[in-house]
Amino acid sequence: MSSRGEKHMVRSVVGYPRDLIGVKLLGSPYVVGQEALDKRSYLDIRYPLEDGVLREYSERDIEVARHLLSHVIEVAKPKPNEEICAIIGVPARASGANKSLLLNIAQEMMDMALVISEPFMVAYGQGKLVNALVIDIGAGTVDLSALKGTLPEAEDQATLTRAGNFVDERLMALIEERYPEVQINTHVTCAIKEENSFVGDNGKSIKVELRADGKPGTYDVTDQVQAACESLVPEIIETAENLIRSFPPEHQSDVLKNIVMAGGGSRIKGLASFIAEKLSTFGEVQVTTVADPTFDGSAGALKLAQELPPDYWDQLGDLIA
Ligand SMILES: Nc1ncnc2c1ncn2[C@@H]1O[C@H](COP(=O)(O)OP(=O)(O)OP(=O)(O)O)[C@@H](O)[C@H]1O
Ligand SMILES: [Mg+2]
User: Fold this and answer.
1) Residue 186's domain is classified under what CATH number?
2) Pocket of ligand 1 contains residue 194 by CB under 6 Å
3) Are residues 178 and 212 in the same domain?
4) Ligand 1 within 6 A of 33 CB?
5) Which helix (H) or strand (E) is 279 found in, with range?
6) pLDDT (tens digit, 9 = 90+) per residue, 222-264?
7) Domains in the chain: how many in total?
8) Which ligand is nearest to the CA of 142?
9) CB of 162 within 8 A of CB of 91?
């Protein structure tokens, strides 16, 4: 999201042609985002930010990240000679080395860049800066942040590496185990999840069309979807409990009523009440889901960028200018 009103969602994937035929088909040396996935049959697909940060440090990986970042800037349509200042969301517990690697790449194409933990961006956008807990369920990580009226310290935050991608893997394994004859891959699995995700008993049954030996057939995947989605919950609960306990006792009941869920994974049906139920031994619990799980974090970052101008950004976190 930009201060000029641009708003785009770019999947963090870059595709490169496998050979000259691919170059001819693609008409360019690489493509970024959904187009790369759509054409994956003849592209090498790379996910430079798979775990929310740069994974590896090889020159090749950095090059892929560079292609992704420059594409993101391009879709924001900056005017020539305009200053580009960006806030980049990273997992709550991203390492210093990871953050500086990302900033080094950003520096090549931006005038100023700041990395901030994603759940803090959400909290800022929602105005939940004190006695609140944010749970941001993304693809590579689930990030939790306890808001205590200051910038969260390392111990106020947690990053779990079982998130949306983990649910996809789990779901695929469970479907393969139950129906060994079907042909399935992670893209199909992810689509099934996004269409049908739920936790708790909702009484509905989920039937999907899959292929076995080239022939389509209808398969019931209700139990598999439920189990895969619920597999995230125990770790989230345990971490949330620890963060809630880190507040002064007199504030803990406020925090319990001020839990905010964000990120694509917060679209899992029934998740807010499922989590509230699991925490209910601590007292009255209210878990809300942000209105727009895709853009809420960016909206928070943009708000922060506009309310606290770039001159002050060095007080907010790791910065490159
Ligand atoms: N309806 C849905 N049900 C379950 N999961 C969903 C749904 N819609 C999207 N997701 C999942 O949400 C994840 C993407 O969420 P989000 O866009 O918040 O992640 P991200 O910010 O890119 O990742 P990260 O925070 O790890 O860097 C993906 O795993 C996606 O499959
Ligand atoms: Mg995220």
Assistant:
1) 3.30.420.40
2) yes
3) yes
4) no
5) helix 271-279
6) 999 999 999 999 999 999 999 999 999 999 999 999 999 999 9
7) 3
8) 1
9) no
